[in-house]
Amino acid sequence: MVKTKEDLLSNFDILSTAYIKLLNDKDVLLEWGKPQLEALYSTRIGVHQLEQLQLELRIKALKRKIEMVRSIIVRNLPLDVAAIEMQIAVELAATELEVMQAAAQIENSKAMLSHLDTPQRSAELRSIFKQLAKLLHPDVNPLLTNEQQEIWHKVKSAYEEGDLEKLKALQVIYEKEISNSHSLLSELTEEQLELRNEVLSEGIKQLENEIGVIRSSFPFDMEENIKDEAWVSKRQQEIKEIVNRLRTLEGGLILEYEALIHGYGGSKPELN
Questions:
Q1: pTM of the entire structure?
Q2: What is the structure's pLDDT at 140?
Q3: Helix, strand, coil shares of the chain as percentages rounded to 5?
């Protein structure tokens, strides 16, 4: 059955609506859902894992110090505790940086969770953006003028910044220019419209696949657990038990390190 231009325009409207919705769904997952879930994980689980990482780093440093002191004792060389401390600090600098980054992420997560927009405000922001994206997104509107493309960049920037007031203002200020973008579709030939519909159809399939991959990866694969108080409590307890064992191990290593140095005639090391 040969499709008329009206049919093609109707299909274009359906496909462009679906395409923009999926683009928005993907953006919400990456820019809203992912950071919030990661923040929840950091504040509920990560903060305890950080303590574990800090202990593991200190234990790794102590074991390396003990190894170096024993080597010095065996070879009957002069013992320079400060030099040992400095060398270990250099050796473990990369690991210490990872721990510091984990600590910074937790602080950022706490700040983010304390400054979340209300659900109503976020929903309004996304709703307006979807309306404007359908009229201004380059993938949907290939005939945009330079002015309309500039408006699109402003709209996209306001949305990414979460600036609802700015987005509303742009919608009002450029109402005429924005509405004119859709009228450009009538200038397309039937062949051009058919090609545009095929491109949108393939784009929809690709977006669906991308969203599927995102939802199957961290932190979305942990979403139910992160929001399950019983699971969170159990995981916290597991990490606390590990931390307690590490503290005991650290205490023993500190005593061993001090004993080695005292036994060889050195001064008591400064332990952090």
A1: 0.69
A2: 83
A3: 85, 0, 15
- pLDDT higher than threshold 90 for residue 232: yes
Which pLDDT score is estimated for 114? 67
Structure confidence by residue, pLDDT tens digits, 40-89: 999 899 999 999 999 999 999 999 999 999 999 999 888 888 999 999 99
**Alpha-carbon gap, residue 54 to 29, rounded angstroms:** 31
For the chain, count helices (H), then strands (E): 12, 0
Look at residues 172, 87, 90, 165 and name the one whose alpha carbon lies nearest to residue 125.
165
Residue 96 CB partners (closer than 8 Å, separation 6+)? 57, 89
DSSP-derived letter for residue 187 is G
- Contact between 171 and 178 under an 8 Å Cβ cutoff? The reply is yes
On whether the CB atoms of residues 194 and 3 are closer than 8 A, the answer is yes
Contacts of 260 (CB under 8 A, 6+ apart): 66, 69, 70, 73
Residues 6+ apart with CB under 8 A from 7: none
Q: What is the average pLDDT across 234-254?
A: 96
User: CA end-to-end span of the chain, whole Å?
Assistant: 79
Q: Considering all CA atoms of the chain, what is the largest pairwise distance in Å, rounded to the nearest integer?
A: 97
* Cα-based distances in Å from 126 to 16, 121, 155, 157, 181: 16, 9, 11, 13, 20
* 142-157 tens-digit pLDDT: 778 888 889 999 998 9
DSSP for 256-270?
HHHHHHHHTTPPPP-
The token duo for 178 is: 């924005």
Work out the pLDDT band at 217, boundaries 50, 70, 90: very high
Task: Kindly give the residue spans of alpha helices, DSSP state H, lying in 119-265.
Answer: 119-136, 146-160, 164-173, 175-183, 190-215, 223-226, 229-263
